[in-house]
Write a structure and sequence with these properties.
With 337 residues, the protein is of the alpha/beta class. The chain folds into two domains: 184 residues, NAD(P)-binding Rossmann-like Domain (Rossmann fold); 143 residues, N-(1-d-carboxylethyl)-l-norvaline Dehydrogenase, domain 2 (Orthogonal Bundle), CATH 1.10.1040. Helix content is 49%, strand content 14%. It contains 16 helices and ten strands. The strands form two sheets. The chain has an eight-stranded mixed sheet with strand order 5-2-1-6-7-8-9-10, sandwiched between helices. Strand 6, helix 4 and strand 7 form a beta-alpha-beta unit. Helix 4 runs parallel beside helix 5 and helix 8 runs antiparallel to helix 9. 51% of the residues are buried.
Length: 337
């Protein structure tokens, strides 16, 4: 029986444990929680009341704060921690990661300090002690609210890896009645899409918070996708990846779905609340808040304009009002589509 170790007990890590327990293949699943109290609560109460309430963890899933115990005998490691904590978590995991372990990053975001994608953080941490580490890494992304996946609602996602055999193997391992996985070898495109769509969701939420209607949202999603594609292709991704589940699919979900944390931040900003106050009242991480600045840095390095991302960053970190940001976008020089 394959053992799967999941690092992170936020909503997505917890949901993945539940979903994978329903896979067509039987698995031994172990969850690692950074917080010892949360690990104990999950192990005894079988419910993540903080991040995924009202969803019962099957009794076969082990939850612990001991990372060595979680990784012992595991053949698949899934990283489901916030991007800002990925480096420290993978560093803790490194002594216990075997040379054969398959690594799946399920984190959507860039490392704030370095602007690195999660697969590159994994390579930096685990690469020096492992040959051909890139051939053992896959990324999991796509339109997937944790609550809906945990409920067993149909969900389609992407598994991207440079190693086609690894992607196909993980696709078969993870397949479940309510989880359909597609494979892809454009790791760069899938990871960038997963990071960029969160910033667009903040913009979409701001439109709603201002009381704007469907015209504005449709324009935002369409031009947001164009912006995402512009940067991703400049960095070496394939344009069709941005039109797939990891790009357009996840963009539509996060810009329109009421469960989106990033969209929620945008809605509250549009209503006039301050970012610090909004984040203080949130239990979960909105990755887009710390992603806008790294994306702008990447754009500047490649001499690209990201007007929506630029305005979102100004709202988040320079105190610009959402109404003023929209006016500045609408008054940009006219051009061809």
């Amino acid at each position: 029986m394959t053992k799967i170790a999941i690092l992170g007990t936020g909503s997505w890590g917890t949901a993945l444990a539940i979903v994978l327990s329903r896979s067509e293949r039987k698995h031994e699943i172990a969850l690692w929680a950074h917080d010892a109290a949360l690990a104990a609560s999950l192990q005894s109460g079988r419910e993540n009341k903080t991040y995924l309430p009202q969803h019962v963890l099957p009794g076969s899933i082990v939850v612990t704060n001991n990372i060595q115990e979680v990784l012992s005998r595991a053949t698949i490691l899934i990283g489901a921690m916030p991007s800002a904590h990925a480096r420290s978590v993978y560093t803790q995991a490194r002594p216990h990661v075997s040379q054969e372990m398959k690594i799946v990053s399920a984190t959507k975001g860039l490392e704030p300090a370095t602007h690195l994608r999660m697969s590159k953080v994994v390579e930096q941490i685990l690469g020096p002690t492992s040959a051909a580490i890139s051939q053992r890494i896959a990324v999991l992304s796509g339109p997937s609210f944790a609550v809906e996946a945990a409920r067993g609602e149909p969900t389609a996602v992407v598994l991207a890896s440079q190693n086609a055999a690894l992607a196909a193997d993980l696709q078969a391992e993870f397949a479940a009645p309510s989880l359909r996985l597609y494979t892809n070898d454009d790791v760069l495109g899938v990871e960038l899409a997963g990071a960029m769509k969160n910033v667009m969701a903040i913009a979409a939420g701001a439109c709603q918070g201002l009381g704007l209607g469907s015209n504005a949202l449709a324009a935002l999603i369409t031009r947001g996708l164009a912006e995402m594609k512009r940067l991703a292709v400049a960095l070496g991704a394939r344009p069709e990846t941005l039109s797939g589940l990891a790009g357009l699919g996840d963009l539509v979900l996060t810009c329109t779905g009421s469960l989106s944390r990033n969209r929620y931040v945008g809605v509250e900003l549009g209503k006039g609340r301050k970012l610090q106050e909004i984040r203080a009242n949130m239990r979960m991480v909105a990755e887009g808040v710390d992603t806008a600045a790294p994306l702008l840095a990447l754009a500047q390095e490649n001499h690209l304009e990201l007007p929506i991302t630029e305005q979102v960053d100004a709202i988040l970190h320079a105190g610009k009002s959402p109404k003023e940001a929209i006016r500045d976008i609408m008054e940009r020089p006219l051009k061809r589509e």
